[in-house]
């Protein structure tokens, strides 16, 4: 597994645990870093993703609900929801990853952590979000 893919996986695990347990993010991140040896720049990448998503989870979820209405978020598995949040944050907010790369990475995470249908589902939702990027990009940054 590529190092940045592994880092995204750790960010995903962190957000997933937070969704399910509500444990403090700092504690979850500390535990993940103890379990997974990452070089400092990859730890920073994980923290950037997690701490970038956390304060705007509601905004991200609103965008996902608005521009991918065929998939009600309350019916989407937590792992799938967090994969979508990560990719959306990376290409629309953090602007740290090109759109195609973010989608490919999300599909890879879906293959590793999701169900058999997750990769196609993730690709479909992100495709819908990308086609509407200009409509919501600014609102995510405010």
Helices and strands in order, then pairings?
Blueprint: H1 3-21, H2 25-35, H3 40-53, H4 57-67, H5 78-93, H6 99-113, H7 118-131, H8 133-141
Helix pairs in contact: 1-2, 1-3, 1-5, 3-5, 4-5, 5-6, 5-7, 6-7
Explain what you see.
The chain has a single domain, classed as NusB-like (N-utilizing Substance Protein B Homolog, Chain A, Orthogonal Bundle), CATH 1.10.940. It has 8 helices and no strands. The N and C termini lie far apart (34 Å).
What is the tally of helical segments? 8
The oligomeric status of these chains comes to: single chain
CATH superfamily: NusB-like
According to DSSP, the number of beta strands is: 0
Mean pLDDT metric: 93
Low-confidence stretches: none
Question: Main sheet?
Answer: none
For the record, the CATH class is Mainly Alpha
State the CATH architecture: Orthogonal Bundle
Radius of gyration: 14 Å
Q: CA-to-CA gap between the ends? A: 34 Å
Concise account of the structure shown:
With 142 residues, the protein is mainly alpha-helical. 77% of the residues lie in helices and 0% in strands. The chain is built from 8 helices and no strands.
Features:
mainly alpha; 142 residues; N-utilizing Substance Protein B Homolog, Chain A
């Amino acid at each position: 597994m590529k190092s940045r893919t592994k880092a995204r996986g750790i960010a995903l695990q962190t957000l997933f645990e937070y969704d399910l347990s509500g444990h403090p993010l700092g504690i979850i991140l500390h535990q993940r870093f103890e379990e997974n040896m990452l070089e400092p720049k990859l730890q920073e990448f994980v923290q950037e993703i997690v701490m970038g998503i956390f304060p705007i989870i509601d905004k991200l979820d609103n965008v996902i609900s608005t521009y991918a209405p065929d998939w009600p978020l309350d019916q989407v598995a937590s792992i799938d929801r967090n994969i979508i949040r990560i990719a959306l944050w990376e290409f629309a907010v953090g602007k740290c990853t090109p759109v195609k790369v973010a989608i490919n990475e999300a599909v890879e995470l879906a293959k590793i952590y999701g169900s058999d249908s997750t990769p196609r589902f993730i690709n479909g939702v992100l495709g819908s979000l990308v086609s509407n990027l200009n409509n919501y990009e600014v609102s995510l940054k405010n």
